[in-house]
TrEMBL record:
Signal peptide bounds: 1-18
PROSITE patterns assigned to the protein according to its UniProt record, in alphabetical order: SH3B (PS51781)
Keyword Lipid biosynthesis on entry: no
Domain of life: Bacteria
Family matches, as Gene3D superfamilies: SH3 Domains
Name the UniProt record assigns to this protein: SH3b domain-containing protein
Domain SH3b positions: 33-111
Keyword Chloroplast (UniProt): no
InterPro entries xrefs: SH3-like_bac-type
Keywords: Signal
Length: 281
């Protein structure tokens, strides 16, 4: 009998821990404010009568459809490594205002408008991927994408990795200058971060030219207090030490040994941009 109660206790603790984990992650990149506008990211997103995946489907909305968040429901749905609340929304379609519930994972993490184009950033799925150091281990890897839409037409889309659920506590999406790169109209930067020690953050730069999205190599940063860190960045032509039509990848890492001595390592790569694509120098 004692062993039964021990097992039951451990099961309850595990269940509560999992629920708490879902709550924490769901209040990350998919945490949207009430009475704020938002946009649909996933095409053919289903609008349901209640916050449940089995609830009646009332409608479906296309990518870039603007909605209004009315209320965040406490119900959380997990698909792969994506955890998100359901939201009650209001939207305009065919000159009619309607309401319903949408899963937060189908909404944009961020969106921007520039020069007549809508740029959307969101997460699309979770895949199983073998660990580089331990091939026998499969890890859950989130996939994100950035879309460019003109009116109601999808112009281009690129996908990239964004780490595990732990790296989805915080997300940003911004438009930057062309960084003085030939033929580049503007630069997009999508970021997700764990905002905690030992949890990686990812920066994805994407160049926009001639209605095409060109993703650059992804940057990863991680650290744990003053024990170790690994940082990656790009130096663009518009930076002080920048070179025309060249961007430089710089990496630096530090780790302390058992005697608290710092061991540092630096590396760099030079990429040449020809106005259409890039390559290693």
């Amino acid at each position: 009998m004692k062993s039964f109660f021990t097992v039951l206790f451990l099961f309850i603790i595990q269940l509560l821990s999992a629920q708490e984990e879902d709550y924490v992650y769901a209040n990350g990149v998919f945490n949207f404010e009430e009475n704020k506008t938002q946009k649909i990211f996933t095409d053919w997103t289903r609008i349901r009568q209640s916050p449940n995946v089995n609830a009646q489907i009332m409608d479906s909305l296309q990518t870039n459809q603007q909605i209004l968040i009315l209320k965040k429901d406490e119900t959380i749905l997990k698909l792969g490594e994506r955890r998100a609340n359901w939201y009650k929304i209001s939207y305009q379609k065919d000159d009619k205002t309607s309401e319903g519930y949408v899963w937060g994972g189908n909404l944009c993490v961020g969106y921007r408008n520039k020069n007549g184009y809508d740029f959307l950033f969101g997460l699309t799925k979770t895949i199983n991927k073998k660990d580089k150091e331990y091939p026998e281990i499969n890890i859950q890897q989130n996939i994100a994408s950035v879309k460019v839409v003109e009116g109601n037409t999808l112009i281009d889309e690129v996908s990239f990795e964004t780490g595990s659920a732990e790296s989805l506590s915080y997300g940003t999406f911004n438009i930057e200058s062309n960084h003085k790169l030939q033929n580049v109209e503007l630069t997009l930067k999508a970021t997700v971060s764990g905002e905690a020690c030992g949890i990686a953050s990812y920066d994805q730069y994407i160049l926009f030219k001639d209605k095409k999205l060109v993703p650059l190599p992804q940057l990863m940063n991680v650290g744990d207090a003053d024990v170790y860190y690994h940082t990656e960045e790009f130096v663009f032509p518009n930076d002080k030490s920048g070179i025309p039509n060249t961007f430089i990848f710089k990496m630096e890492e530090m780790e302390k040994d058992e005697k608290d001595r710092e061991k540092k390592k630096k590396a760099s790569k030079v990429y040449l941009w020809n106005g259409n694509s890039y390559k290693l120098k």
